[in-house]
């Protein structure tokens, strides 16, 4: 068999595999869009009495989509660039407050603008316009945080970012322009403020909200995947593996770490934007440090550096607590035991990246010094 025939045969096999992969992706996405309509006993969480702490299956799916979006953004910072960020909830809060302060007619910011420019009492910034505002605010926040702190490494960087998350929460709690502990209500969605007239994006039927969040998630996944396999992604991986060696090879470590912070912050702000739009009300108590630790746990348990792993970790840590609400008093114990077991049995995560798996394997095979 000639070389030309072999190459043609290899090309045909590659094309067949590519077609199969595309079909699998299309079918998987179609299944995700069908999930809110799925009813499987023991798996789906059906609508129950909300006053008794019940959950809505579509509502849980929406929360899973938002948290997967958060995990993917944080995976850019932790998994790709190797920067431990313990204050990611701060970006989540900034994104949520962006749509609340500029889109809600009840917010002090909108009321101040109405008085200053003699606007109608019904005026507020349109929901669609709040999207770039939210992304811009969170990206600028990421740059402001990263510019003076990214020269730090390891535990020092983690402590600084942890303080950033707490600063955002305390400012939101004590500032007049955020309405303090009273929070902000009447946060708009695509059809305006929460109302019985909203026939699509209302308060009871959450399926459209899930489909919206899933669409945003797919767009972000495509964008982050392209970044990961570009020059930017290779620079992040080089910095994560050995920052000093990357600098010697000509990589501007500070620049690319700042980009990682900005892009991760933008994704976190977008998730907060969706969360606030669906909730219709936010207050500072919903953005405490425990939530930030949960975000990090999603990435670490799922598999740092791998988007599929981060997504799986977010789904598990969102779905399981909702599925077993009857055992809520045991939730902290179960969560702690799960973390210990995963770190002992799967330190690389449930679905680790190929590179991370090789790193841990090489370390395990190293011969201890002096033996």
From the structure above, extract its key features.
371 residues; mainly alpha; two-stranded antiparallel sheet
Describe the protein.
The protein has 371 residues and is mainly α. Helices cover 67% and strands 1% of the residues. The chain has 14 helices and two strands; from the N terminus they run H-H-H-H-H-H-E-H-H-H-H-E-H-H-H-H. It has helices at 3-34, 57-80, 89-103, 108-116, 127-149, 154-174, 207-228, 231-241, 243-248, 253-279, 289-302, 307-323, 331-345, 354-365, and strands at residues 184-185, 281-282. A two-stranded antiparallel sheet has the order 1-2. Helix 2 (57-80) packs across helix 11 and helix 8 (231-241) crosses helix 10. The radius of gyration is 23 Å and the shape is globular. Residues 48-54 have low confidence and may be disordered. InterPro entries: ABC_transp_permease, LivM-like. Keywords: Cell membrane, Membrane, Transmembrane, Transmembrane helix. This is Branched-chain amino acid ABC transporter permease.
Helix and strand sequence: HHHHHHEHHHHEHHHH
- What fraction strand? under 5%
Structural class: mainly alpha
What is the tally of helical segments? 14
Mind telling me the C-alpha Rg?
Answer: 23 Å
Largest sheet: 2 strands, antiparallel
User: Which whole number gives the mean pLDDT?
Assistant: 85
The rounded distance between the terminal residues' Cα atoms is 53 Å
Report the strand count. Answer: 2
Helix content: 55-70%
- Strand line-up across the major sheet: 1-2
Point out poorly predicted stretches: 48-54
